């Protein structure tokens, strides 16, 4: 069923219709008082491994500080993989059949912005270190923290939802980009991995302590997930490298867990790494076959994701210059055949066919499945 949620994500109108069609599936109803009447509903689920979301008074309940990040990192893939991966981390603590997902409501935008900024006389809560006045790449104090994200996990109590747990992601820089003067050239401070880890864990304890003082949080479990940003020139987002848990109202992290993830881009360019060479060869064979099918392809590229050293997913993009609907249909059929023959058999695979006119077709296979699902986007 996961492939259907991906299809829905490519067609916004379909998403909205599907969400409306699954309201109240959790049994959450209406809460009222003498002054206000609040209707709480849920979006429903497209698969068992996804959370239901919260709808309040007919509208999706958005985050108080959504999309907040420091402005010097220009790789948009980071924010997407950061948010998606954060839910994967959350599932280790908050099961999808026991908890309902709610966008962060306790960390206010102004508070999050202060935490992201440098510590200073006017901002004592800044998690990034004070500016030491140095501009040399090896002497200055870099910004270690790039973004912060809160996700709330709710439990049902009668007709009401109450906070059952919380996950907060901290996106850490492996490279800090800075300017010595406004509108000037951009310079880089490379941050050692061990330093990034130690700074992230120290910040995690500060965040837990502060959240415990926030009204409404109480003694629920708090998960802090640490994420390593990819560099600005990377074609893939970063990865999570650790997460910690604070239980029973604790003001610090009581246990840490390492996360082994890696992202790569295929085909390999220059001295870049490719992950497993066998997976790279499989993609290369697939790419060769696809490019020989039609002469007017603009390119075939892939993003690969590894967990614990094993390929868990491959997202392939095929850029075309097709204009004929029959060409797209035939090409999609051929892609399914080539994917079955050449691509790795165990990992989840997604193939998007796109042109300047938008997405033309989509092909997917979930992890462990043998057959691909395909869909050609048509028009009336």
From TrEMBL:
Region (Disordered): 27-47, 119-139
Record's keyword terms, sorted: Signal
Start-end of Low complexity biased regions: 27-46
Signal sequence segment: 1-18
Biased composition (Polar residues): 122-136
Gene3D superfamilies for this protein: sex pheromone staph- cam373 precursor domain
Origin superkingdom: Bacteria
Coiled-coil ranges (or none): none
Record flagged with keyword Signal: yes
InterPro entries: CamS
Protein's name according to its UniProt entry: CamS family sex pheromone protein
Species per Swiss-Prot/TrEMBL record: Loigolactobacillus zhaoyuanensis
